[in-house]
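Hi U.,

Before I forget, here's the chain from the pilot set. I'm dumping it here mostly so it's searchable later in email.
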Amino acid sequence: QVQFVESGGGLVQPGGSLRLSCAASLSIFSMYGMGWYRQAPGKQRELVAAITSSGTTKYADSVKGRFTISRDNAKNAVYLHMNSLKPEDPTVYYCNTDPLLRIRWGQGTQVTVSS
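Structure:
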């Protein structure tokens, strides 16, 4: 069964940084595009960053220049480096494939930005 396990969230002050990690139990992980999604309370989940199997990246306008997605195919892992965090950055972050392939979501990791 495919699983995504996110980690690395926490409490950070405005302007701070965090590095999120996702371990994916996908066979032939390197063949999949991967994405980081986030969901604020009462809002739909949105894609904030994605990386293709060949390493091409794309970002939502709201995080462009602040977030960086990367992957390590040898470890079946994808990362999200977040800089200049803002209080309005939503709270729970998830990883999954991009495009979505109806694979169950993991538990996510919570990011709180507060002084």
